[in-house]
């Protein structure tokens, strides 16, 4: 492993592809999220070097189908703007003209030199139309509508946290080429991080340091943000029902975690126990016994101090299902915990962690998460923290849950 400030390189000993990730941290506002969403799609389409979509796509294909991914991701009160490039290790290809230098230069051109010439307005309009088509398709699915609207209602007192996708949609219509250019300049100055994996890690280090690092001012700033958490919402309980005309109802129940535990894995074990798979408490009692749910899940949003129970239900069984969910959580808070099922939940989480490392992009995500939080835990330590979660810890976690919203989309 080679590290230089906010630049980290790891030797790839397992996979046939190399990876390079450039990450930029911005505060979560709906304005920032809108700009980041539009810029990500725009950079994925064209750049100053490749001024048509066909040219950029052709260059990616020429280099043995380089995989380019550009997207913003919300983490608590921050946005992480991500530019990831994955390519076949040149040592595995019998082509002397195919090199790491070509791939890094391609990444540099796309990341640092978007198309902002005077005649690029038509391409921006095309990109906006493409984005609005994606947004329309997203809102065609009732579960997407329910998730999006639940989140808006839950953070009604904190508008900047009320959307984790798209940002301010009205603003997206108005963003000009000049304004997007200004945002790109600001992005390069935001706290940044570079992570790379390659078999010849020394060569990749030299290439990235020469072509990228010197041109990203934000790499000199602190990337770690230890205060990612959004405080629990304080509004009173609210019950919301909206009409969509779908065949089944979507139920979202949002619980504020009032005093989150120091061990951040307790919440993950709790949701695995509550609704993680077919052996979970809610699956047994809502889907199998009540026969009410097409799907049911429990999600722990650590950085939001938020636990969400979601279910796709027959419309005439929504109220009965809500009562069962509330009852099961009250039982756990009172200490009624199935010890064998808890052990299964912990084993399942450990197994999921091990499976992460079967895919290279997941390894990149784990390393990004460690740098973002400033927590350098080994997998052995994470596994130890999961296995140490006790019945008492699960009971204490449940006792800190306060129902803040029941959202139903019919």
From TrEMBL:
It comes from the Bacteria. GO terms for molecular function: metal ion binding. Residues 174-349 form the Peptidase M16 C-terminal domain. SUPFAM superfamilies: LuxS/MPP-like metallohydrolase. It holds the Pfam family Peptidase_M16_C. InterPro entries: Metalloenz_LuxS/M16, Peptidase_M16_C. This is Zn-dependent peptidase. It comes from Amylolactobacillus amylotrophicus DSM 20534.
């Amino acid at each position: 492993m080679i590290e230089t400030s906010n630049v980290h390189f790891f030797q790839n000993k397992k996979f046939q592809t190399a990876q390079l990730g450039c990450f930029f941290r911005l505060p979560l506002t709906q304005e920032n999220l809108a700009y980041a969403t539009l810029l990500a799609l725009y950079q994925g389409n064209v750049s100053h070097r490749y001024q048509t979509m066909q040219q950029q796509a052709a260059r990616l294909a020429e280099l043995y189908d380089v995989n380019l991914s550009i997207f913003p991701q919300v983490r608590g009160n921050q946005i992480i703007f991500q530019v990831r490039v994955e390519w076949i290790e040149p040592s595995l290809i019998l082509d002397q003209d195919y090199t790491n230098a070509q791939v890094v230069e391609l990444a540099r051109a796309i990341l640092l030199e978007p198309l902002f010439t005077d005649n690029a307005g038509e391409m921006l309009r095309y990109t906006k139309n493409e984005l609005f088509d994606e947004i329309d398709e997203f809102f065609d699915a009732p579960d997407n509508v329910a998730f999006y609207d639940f989140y808006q209602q839950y953070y009604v007192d904190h508008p900047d946290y009320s959307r984790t996708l798209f940002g301010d949609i009205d603003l997206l219509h108005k963003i000009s080429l000049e304004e997007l250019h200004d945002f790109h300049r600001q992005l390069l100055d935001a706290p940044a991080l570079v992570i790379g994996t390659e078999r010849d890690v020394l060569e990749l280090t030299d290439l990235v340091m020469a072509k990228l690092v010197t041109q990203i001012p934000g790499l000199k700033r602190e990337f770690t943000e230890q205060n990612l958490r959004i405080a629990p919402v304080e509004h009173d309980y609210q019950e919301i029902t909206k009409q969509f005309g779908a065949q089944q109802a979507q139920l979202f129940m949002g619980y504020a975690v009032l005093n989150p535990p120091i061990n951040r894995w307790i919440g993950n074990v709790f949701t695995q126990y509550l609704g993680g798979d077919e052996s979970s408490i809610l699956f047994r009692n809502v889907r199998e016994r009540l026969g009410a749910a097409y799907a049911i899940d429990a999600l722990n949003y650590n950085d939001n101090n938020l636990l969400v129970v979601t279910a796709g239900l027959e419309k005439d069984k929504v109220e009965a299902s809500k009562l069962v969910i509330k009852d099961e959580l009250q039982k756990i808070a009172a200490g009624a915990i199935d010890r064998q099922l808890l052990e299964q939940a912990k084993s399942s989480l450990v197994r999921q962690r091990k499976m992460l490392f079967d895919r290279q992009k997941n390894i990149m995500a784990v390393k990004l998460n460690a740098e973002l939080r400033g927590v350098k835990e080994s997998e052995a330590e994470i596994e130890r923290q999961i296995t140490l979660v006790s019945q008492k810890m699960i009971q204490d976690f449940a006792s800190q849950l306060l129902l803040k919203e029941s959202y139903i989309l019919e």
